[in-house]
Every structure is written in structure tokens, then in C-alpha cells.
């Protein structure tokens, strides 16, 4: 059966799907999360594998004797937490939320929150305790909020927090006992009281509809222009010489490993100038890097940038590069696309002589090497710089027309490349094909629909105002052709000057989100100049933009990128204007869904190793609307052709959910993916990592 029509119907009628799932699971619709309660598992009813409530842990320190237990003596439901101290020389014991992005409530600096708990205690040495997560310093104790008097009956205690300090993105809290006695707690609640709106599920003001940005209080140690989200949750930031000829002359090449949740960096020895290389994640989670910069332009202008033939693999297990065999030609700005069999194809870029490279490079995963020119089909065609090559469901490649620098290729500007047959077929409909420098193309959610959106662009030679055009193509059609999409919303220029109706942007970033929307951000009006402050949400189901999302306070033009983090936020970095400066500030965007209430929890995943065509079992802590796999980013220069969102049709099976994975590896090429579920309140979980092989 062709699943596509059913998938589209399901996406248009989420309420019907939710009702069906709830009925199959024996739950009522009222089981959805309470409005504005930011606590995960507030009633302690969902238990983890060790028998303790999900998202809660038995914490504390010092020299004391104690027991933790789940008790049926609850305020409501079947479960409560009990702590008993039988003797104490020092320290305390706490029933605390887990310090984890999946469990700790998100907060907004400057806001205040009411924290409530139902409790019984036999000791006066009982306090509500709070910790906060500082984006630079990590988790740290914040304060004891209030002492709780002795009571033999369940009593509710509500305390208002002080204003959340700057650079704080999450908090945890709970109840502490620091002398002998017994404490029982249940039914936790946390609500934002800064801007209460009667009857609304969100009280975070504009963030409810626009989301919110935070510029991190630190800078990256490298002038990074390449980013790869690794399957351990860290981010590889590659700079090489960072577009700095002096650093190149000094042999100073940089890579930094960024740990988003602790705000720390690890410098990685970098063997060559990987500035403007190509990169892709292999099916085993290592990062394949091809080409880079062999030399900067000569002083007399006789030669331009020259492409590197070297190739490396970065291994997250060792945080080190290993050299592979060389490419057949030099490549500066090459593409990199993972195929359904785990191999990689790379095209385009500049060669060792500064001319366009026409060699097709093919990496064999089984052999762990680049094949020779005579071992793979060659078209001897120059595809341009960073040509966006998206894998289609039948194994062919779609060149979207997005590229970097210069006029587009002869023909219609987009084409389908059949590597096995060695043929190239033009695809019509792409407007202003010679003004697609630094445009971005994405395979729209879900990948099964085979629709591609191409956004914006300019021309670095003629340097007109960048345009607002978007074009959409259905690759399942008998004769695929681009059709006009809605224009990118207009924004403002430096000083708040509004754009005209004809002005758009190049250097566009487009990020696939767990809820199936596409977040569009960043960009500039001209080549390496005139940043545009505008961001929007594109809905693939309706082909419409929602304008007016919060904008990154930092300019994001040349050498900038944005991408999804495993906790559902978006990270943006880089800016390299024409004066040669380079912004190393990192910005983090929290989409509107992070202000709608508690996050759903993926309680368990039966297996992290998934086979094609299989049904995989997970358990969750409440009703969910949908589930999906998102391939982690490997992005540079408005280009990430491997970005994709794979829908996982769901079946309810007893207490769990079955997720049905496609049998087509061209829909979901092998490798590590972020597994998200989206709750009844529209909020996504934090990702669990699963591996398709």
C-alpha cells in the first residue's frame, strides 16, 4: 500500500489521530497535559525501569542513613515519593527532578514561577530546594525557597521564585529533608506567573508565538563555518584557517568540540586547512571530510583559491582526525551526499589549479576509501560550488539549483542526476536560476512526501538585492517541475529600516523542527553585507509562512549556519562580512513549542538498533501526536543536503507505541538519527538517539 495519502491526511487531522490513539490506549482526551504546568511527570505515576518515578531521582549527600521508596499513600493517583532518614551526622536527602534537558523545566530569564507540591512530613527540617542551569557554568545550587511545617495530612505548599537570573535556561527543584523523619510528596506543579493569561496554556508573552533567542555569554574558540551534530549530542565546529590568510600562512588550523549543555569547548588538533571542505556523517557515526583549502589567492590575482585533495575521518569516540586516501582531484566547496547503501558521492568545487573540478568522487563505505576515477561513472560535468544534491527515493540525486558563488549551470538551473546511468536531466521551473547564490534547499517533512523547498538567494558577481522567491517541487511527479511558493516574509535592515517588498535575502538557513515545521532564519541583502533581521516558520502541510518569529540579535550572513539540537532548540553561529571580521558568538533559539507546557517523555526504547521495515517499540508518559526521525546536521554555507525528517507511522500496542520504519534506505539513509515524539500539547520530547543499519 502506498502510505503517502494516509500520511498527509494524518498531518491535517492531528486531533483525530490523538483521539484514536487515546481510545486504543484506554485513555481519555482529558489525560493531556494540564495547561501551563511545566513539570514533567508531576503526579509521579510514570515509573522508570528502576521503579522510581520518571524524571525524578533520589539525591543528597553526607553521612546519614536513609531510604527512598515509591508509596501508594498518595495525594492523588497510585504513586508518591517517600524519604526516611533514620539517623544523620551530616548532609541531607532530596526528592529532586533529574538535571536533564528532557526533565528539567525550561525557564525565561527575568520571569517568576509559582512552585507547588503536596506533602506530609514528620520533621521540621524540611525545605523546598532549587537548582538552576547556567548556560556557561552548568548546573549549580540556587536557593532554598521555604521551610515546610510538620503535617500529618497532605498539605499544599506554593512558593514563588525570585526572578530567573540571566543565562539560566532550566531549573530543577524538589523537597529536602536534613534531619531524621519521613517526608512524602506528590502532585508537583510549576506555572509562569510573569504574564498570566486566563485560559491560555502559555504565559511567556511574545515567546508563546515568536519563540525567543539567547546569545550565549561566551564565544567559540574557532572561526567556525562548518557544524556537525554528533550522536553523543556534542557539536563539531570546524574552522581550518577560518578564512584568515595569516592563520593559513602560520599553519594554524582549528576545530572545536562544543558541548551545548555545559557550554564548554574542547580544542581538537586539526591536520590541514579544512576551510570550505565538504562533510557528511557516515552510517557508523563518524564524520567524513573531503577537500578544503590548499592555498589562498596569489597576491597578483593570477590564481584564486585552490582545492585540497586530502580527506579525513573524524571519530567522536576518540575526538581525533584520521587521514584517508586522497581524492582524485582537489575540491574547495564540494558537495557531499550519503547514499542509501551508506556510500558517499561528492561533486563540484575548485581544483588544485583554481579551476572547476569535474571529477565525480565516490567513497565506498565497505572498502573505507575513495574509488579511482575509472572505478565510478563520470559525467565530467562541473556542478559549481557546494551544489545542493538531495538523495531521492529511487536513488537518484536532485540538484536543487542552490549553490555558492557565480551564475548557475547552463540549462534550467536544476536537474536530476542518475549516477548509475551517468545521465543528467534538466528540471524546469526554478525562477532566477542565476540568482541562487547562498540560497538553501530542504527536503520538506516528511521525507516520504519527496517535496523540496528552495528559498532566496542572490548573485555575488552582479550583487543585486537578494530576492524573496521560494520554489517547491514534487519529486514523485511523473515529470517533476518547480512551481512558485510563497515569498519569504520581509524583515528589517541595520537600524531597523524595513525592507521593501522586492527585497529578500541570501545566506538563508532553514532548519527542520520536530513538530514538522521549517524554521527559516538569518541572511543578508547583499554579498557579505547588509544583514537582514527576519525569521519565519514554513508549514509544509499548507505551503505557508508564519512571519514575525523572534530574530537572532546577532547578524548572520556569510559563513553562518543554523541547525537543530537534540533538545529541540536551534543553534546559530558565524558571520564573516566583507571587512574580514568574524563573529564567534553562539545564539540559541527556543521555538514557541518550548513555552507550551511540560515535555513528553520517551520512557524507553526497546532497541537503539533499527532495521529497515521494522516496527520499533517505545513507551511514553502520555498521549503523543506523532513521532519522527531527524538526521543530525552537517551544515555549512546554507547547505545541508542530507537534512531530512522521516515520519514514523504509529500503532498503539498495549502500554507502548509501535513506530513503523520505512523499508526504503533512500528515504532514511543508514546512520544515527534523533528520535522525537510530539505530545498532545504540541511540545516535542528531547531526542533519543537510534541507529539505522
TrEMBL record:
Residues 599-692 form the Galactose oxidase-like Early set domain. Pfam families: Glyoxal_oxid_N, GO-like_E_set. Residues 1-34 form the signal peptide. This is Galactose oxidase-like domain-containing protein. It comes from Catellatospora aurea. Keywords: Signal. Residues 258-579 form the Glyoxal oxidase N-terminal domain.
Amino acid at each position: 500500500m502506498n502510505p503517502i495519502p494516509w500520511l498527509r491526511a494524518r498531518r491535517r487531522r492531528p486531533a483525530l489521530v490523538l483521539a484514536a490513539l487515546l481510545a486504543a490506549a484506554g485513555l481519555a482526551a482529558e489525560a493531556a497535559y494540564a495547561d501551563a504546568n511545566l513539570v514533567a511527570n508531576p503526579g509521579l505515576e510514570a515509573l522508570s525501569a528502576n521503579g522510581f518515578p520518571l524524571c525524578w531521582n533520589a539525591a543528597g549527600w553526607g553521612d546519614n542513613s536513609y531510604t527512598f521508596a515509591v508509596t501508594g499513600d498518595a495525594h492523588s493517583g497510585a504513586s508518591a515519593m517517600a524519604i526516611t532518614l533514620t539517623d544523620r551526622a551530616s548532609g541531607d536527602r532530596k526528592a529532586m527532578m533529574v538535571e536533564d534537558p528532557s526533565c528539567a523545566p525550561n525557564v525565561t530569564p527575568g520571569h517568576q514561577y509559582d512552585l507547588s507540591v503536596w506533602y506530609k512530613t514528620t520533621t521540621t527540617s524540611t525545605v523546598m530546594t532549587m537548582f538552576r542551569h547556567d548556560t556557561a557554568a552548568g548546573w549549580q545550587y540556587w536557593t532554598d525557597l521555604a521551610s515546610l511545617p510538620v503535617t500529618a495530612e497532605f498539605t499544599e505548599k506554593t512558593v514563588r521564585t525570585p526572578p530567573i537570573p540571566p543565562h539560566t535556561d532550566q531549573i530543577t527543584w524538589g523537597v529536602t529533608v536534613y534531619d531524621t523523619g519521613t517526608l512524602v510528596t506528590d502532585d508537583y506543579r510549576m506555572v509562569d506567573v510573569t504574564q498570566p493569561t486566563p485560559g491560555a496554556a502559555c504565559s511567556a508573552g511574545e515567546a508563546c508565538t515568536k519563540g525567543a533567542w539567547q546569545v550565549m555569554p561566551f564565544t567559540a574558540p574557532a572561526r567556525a563555518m562548518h557544524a556537525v551534530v554528533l550522536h553523543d549530542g556534542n557539536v563539531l565546529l570546524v574552522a581550518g584557517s577560518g578564512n584568515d590568510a595569516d592563520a593559513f600562512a602560520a599553519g594554524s588550523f582549528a576545530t572545536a568540540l562544543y558541548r551545548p549543555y555545559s557550554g564548554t569547548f574542547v580544542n581538537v588538533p586539526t591536520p590541514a586547512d579544512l576551510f570550505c571542505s565538504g562533510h557528511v556523517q557516515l552510517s557508523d557515526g563518524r564524520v567524513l571530510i573531503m577537500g578544503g583549502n590548499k592555498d589562498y589567492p596569489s597576491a597578483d590575482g593570477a590564481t584564486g583559491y585552490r582545492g585540497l585533495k586530502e580527506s579525513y575521518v573524524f571519530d567522536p569516540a576518540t575526538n581525533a582526525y584520521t587521514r584517508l586516501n586522497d581524492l582524485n582531484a582537489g575540491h574547495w566547496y564540494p558537495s557531499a551526499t550519503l547514499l542509501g547503501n551508506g556510500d558517499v558521492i561528492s561533486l563540484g568545487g575548485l581544483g588544485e589549479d583554481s579551476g572547476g573540478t569535474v571529477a565525480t568522487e565516490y567513497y565506498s563505505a565497505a572498502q573505507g576509501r575513495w574509488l579511482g576515477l575509472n572505478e565510478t561513472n563520470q559525467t565530467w560535468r562541473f556542478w559549481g560550488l557546494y551544489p545542493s544534491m538531495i538523495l531521492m527515493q529511487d536513488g537518484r540525486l536532485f540538484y536543487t539549483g542552490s549553490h555558492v558563488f557565480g551564475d548557475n549551470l547552463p540549462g534550467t538551473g536544476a536537474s536530476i542526476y542518475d549516477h548509475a546511468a551517468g545521465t543528467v536531466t534538466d528540471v524546469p521551473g526554478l525562477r532566477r536560476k542565476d540568482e541562487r547564490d547562498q540560497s538553501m534547499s530542504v527536503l520538506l517533512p516528511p521525507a516520504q512526501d519527496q517535496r523540496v523547498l528552495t528559498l532566496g538567494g542572490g548573485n555575488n558577481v552582479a550583487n543585486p538585492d537578494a530576492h524573496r522567491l521560494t520554489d517547491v517541487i514534487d519529486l514523485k511527479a511523473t515529470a517533476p517541475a518547480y512551481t512558485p511558493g510563497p515569498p519569504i516574509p520581509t524583515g528589517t535592515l541595520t537600524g531597523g529600516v524595513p525592507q521593501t517588498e522586492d527585497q529578500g535575502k541570501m545566506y538563508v538557513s532553514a532548519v527542520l523542527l520536530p513538530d514538522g515545521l521549517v524554521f527559516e532564519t538569518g541572511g543578508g541583502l547583499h554579498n557579505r553585507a547588509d544583514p537582514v533581521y527576519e525569521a519565519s516558520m514554513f508549514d509544509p502541510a499548507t505551503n505557508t509562512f508564519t512571519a514575525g518569529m523572534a530574530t537572532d540579535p546577532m547578524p548572520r550572513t556569510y559563513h553562518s549556519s543554523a541547525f537543530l539540537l537534540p533538545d529541540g532548540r536551534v543553534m546559530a553561529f558565524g558571520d564573516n562580512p566583507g571587512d574580514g571580521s568574524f563573529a564567534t558568538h553562539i545564539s540559541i533559539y527556543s521555538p514557541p513549542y518550548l513555552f507550551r507546557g511540560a515535555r513528553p517523555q520517551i520512557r524507553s526504547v526497546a532497541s537503539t538498533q533499527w532495521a529497515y521495515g521494522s516496527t520499533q517499540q517505545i513507551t511514553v508518559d502520555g498521549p503523543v501526536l506523532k513521532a519522527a526521525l531527524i538526521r543530525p546536521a552537517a551544515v555549512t554555507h546554507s547547505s545541508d543536503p542530507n537534512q531530512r525528517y522521516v515520519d514514523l507511522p504509529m500503532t498503539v500496542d498495549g502500554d507502548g507505541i509501535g513506530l513503523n520504519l520505512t523499508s526504503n534506505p533512500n528515504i532514511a539513509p543508514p546512520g544515527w538519527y534523533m528520535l522525537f515524539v510530539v505530545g498532545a500539547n504540541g511540545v516535542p520530547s528531547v531526542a533519543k538517539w537510534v541507529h539505522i543499519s
